[in-house]
Amino acid sequence: MIEADIWPALRNYWHPVALSEEVTTKPQPVRLLGEQLVIYRAGAEIVCLRDLCIHRGTPLSLGWVEGENLVCAYHGWAYNREGVCVRIPSLEAGRPIPRKACVASYPCQEKCGLLWVCLGTPRAPIAECPELELETYRHYLVGPTPWKCSAARAMENFVDLAHFAWVHEGILGDRHHPQVPPVHVNRHGEELRYTVEERPNPVHPVGHRRVYRIWRPFALHQRKERDDGEVEVAFFTVTPHSPGESTNYLWVLRSFELNAEEEEKRKRLDEFIMQQDQAIVENQRPEELPLDLAAELHLRGPDAVAVEYRRFLAELANPPISGRRQQTSTRHRNNP
Length: 336
Prior knowledge:
This protein has helices at 7-10, 151-159, 164-167, 260-281, 304-314, 324-327; strands spanning 15-19, 28-32, 35-42, 45-50, 64-66, 69-71, 78-79, 85-87, 108-111, 114-117, 138-147, 183-188, 191-198, 208-215, 219-226, 231-242, 245-254, 329-332. By secondary structure, it is an alpha+beta fold. The protein has 2 domains: 3-117, 3-layer Sandwich (Rieske Iron-sulfur Protein); 130-332, Naphthalene 1,2-dioxygenase Alpha Subunit, Chain A, domain 1 (Alpha-Beta Complex).
């Protein structure tokens, strides 16, 4: 089983497709799960339609918004926000518009500074980052960052603790202390939750705990609570464009202030960390994440989160017969 096997099920989840601030009355093409879409603002609402005129297959994103309707650039057909054609200029007066003159429309919502789209019937709410609504937290965005990899590969990399000491030596980890703390992963419906306790070390002199929430399929909230009371938050989510293309959005938030120079330095460091990850993830094989646990070797302890995440995704292709999977938790320790 590979990542592509769950793509039909992924249509029933919310996915980010753009920054909210970038969606205007100018039609914008986006790609989600291999499907070409067009998004735009129509009055107070954002509209998402299939980016293909039913008449001659012209991308509607080449057109323009007239009132609250999207006009095709080829023959002037106008579609309303539900995707129904409401005007065909070449038709003589009084002749009805064919019932088949419509394109698919999709639900969309704005949340966490992003526009989210669902191609099917939503089976779970959009992921949350409550700190984005609090004035006490300063924040900035790293991205959007396009990667030539699958969305699940990007997500798994973000939660892989063992690579810190090797890919991010001296920044997130220390090669003289590469061991991963024990992790206890719990399942809560459409979420995985766990906490990582970190003692002070040469890279992080202040002890801290990282509290994780992973929303299926591709969103994560990490709250880093330091022993001195300061809090850092990372909200990470990925858009699955195609099996080999995705886009990352990373919000970084802090409960404490940095001066302008320090904040810019930290942002550049976060961007550098993403570049370090990109060089690895874009070259992983197979390109799509294997969801069959027998396909790769896993270590008890260091790979605890990755194993649970792969099981979590695999359920979308083979739902569990009973609810037992949701009632269990898995404890992994760093032993052979």
